[in-house]
Amino acid sequence: RKEVEQDPGPFNVPEGATVAFNCTYSNSASQSFFWYRQDCRKEPKLLMSVYSSGNEDGRFTAQLNRASQYISLLIRDSKLSDSATYLCVVHRTGGFKTIFGAGTRLFVKA
Amino acid sequence: DGGITQSPKYLFRKEGQNVTLSCEQNLNHDAMYWYRQDPGQGLRLIYYSQIVNDFQKGDIAEGYSVSREKKESFPLTVTSAQKNPTAFYLCASSIGTGNQPQHFGDGTRLSIL
Q1: Residue B26 confidence class, pLDDT cut points 50, 70, 90
Q2: Distance CA A41, CA B69 (A)
Q3: How far apart are CA A50 and CA A65, in angstroms?
Q4: From the CA of A104, how many Å to the nearest CA of chain B?
Q5: Is the alpha carbon torsion for A93, B90, B23, B3 positive or negative?
Q6: Dihedral over alpha carbons A32, B100, A48, B38 (to 10 degrees)
Q7: B54 contacts chain A (CB < 8 A)
Q8: pLDDT digits (tens, 9 = 90+) for B38-85
Q9: Are B63 and B81 a contacting pair, CB within 8 Å?
Q10: What percent of chain B shows pLDDT beyond 90?
């Protein structure tokens, strides 16, 4: 079992839809969590950090559930420009370790 | 503008040849990293460095070497011992290796001739 798992998708949604991705992690020592966005053949870019209390940035909301060991990303009012792969990233201490999920592909259609 | 610069964008390697990928950052970050990404897969850590003149192996270090002689530079050499080097190579940096997010360069695509 991978330490960080994501549904690879693809998620195909119409413009204006709300879409949610989950990411599960298996190591309870995980300390910090991030969502990155990666466009085709480009580098990953930080979308947002995920805080214990949950956090929002415009149309994007991230949640952390430590008890069930998953993080989520909710995108409201999807835009065509949201089409990308979303990477879940988990960092744990105790022998530096940052683990990237394989990503969830999102296609937003007109 | 501060950022991370990788060069070249595309690189072709002949059999038995060593090639070096450049990574420079002007963000004054202490930590730097090299990752490899294969199609449809997540990033895998090759090497990382927390401070100048120090670096550690990641999960897939075999066939690669690095140096960190300057804070702003972390070049990666893909040696002839790396039998499957075709991939997208990403360099990243962060303020430290704690809970801070990493920021990436725009990558180098390496292919075998």
Answers
A1: very high
A2: 30
A3: 10
A4: 10
A5: negative
A6: -90
A7: no
A8: 987 889 999 999 999 999 999 999 999 999 999 999 999 999 888 899
A9: yes
A10: 81
